[in-house]
Amino acid sequence: MDQKTTIGNFEAACLLLNLILSKIILDFPRTVSEDAGSAAWIMILLDSVVVYLLFLLISRLYRKFAGNDLLDVGEIALGEIGRIIAGIIFLIQFMYITHVVLRQFAEDIKVISLTSTPVSIVILLFSIGMIVGAYLGLEAISRLHVLAIPLLAAAFTLILLFNIPRYDISRLSPWLGLGVKAILQKGIINLSYFSELIALFFLMPFLKKKNSFAEIGRYGIFFSGLFLVLSSLCYLMVYQYPTSTEFFLPMYQLARTIKIGRFFSRIEAAFILIWASSAFLYLSSSLYFITYIFQRTFNLKYRKPLIVPFIILIFTLSLLPENLYSTLRVEMHIYRIFSWIFTLVFPLILVIIASVRTGSKKRREEAKP
Amino acid sequence: MIIRMKTILIFLIIISMIFLSGCFDAFEPDELAYVVALGLDDGADGNLIITLLLAVPIAVGVGPEPGEIENATNIITVAAPTILGGINIVNSLISKRINFTHAKLIVISKELAEQGVERFINTFARFREFRPDTHIGITRGSAEEFLKESKPVLEFNPSKHFELIMESFEYTGFSNGSTIAEFYCRMECTCNEAVAILLDISQIEDSKDLTEVMYNLKNSEGEVLEGDYTATDMPIVYENKVRQMGTAVFKADKMVGELTGRETFYYLMVSGKLGQAYYTLPDPGEGAKNITGKREYITLRLGQARKPEINVKIKENRPVVNVQVSLEGDILSITGNSDYSTGEGLKKLENYASGYVKERVISFLEKTRDEFKSDICFIGKSVKKTFLLWDDWINYNWAEEYENADFIVDVEVKIRRSGIMVKQVPANQLKGDIR
Question: Domain A2-367 - what CATH class?
Answer without folding.
Answer: mainly alpha
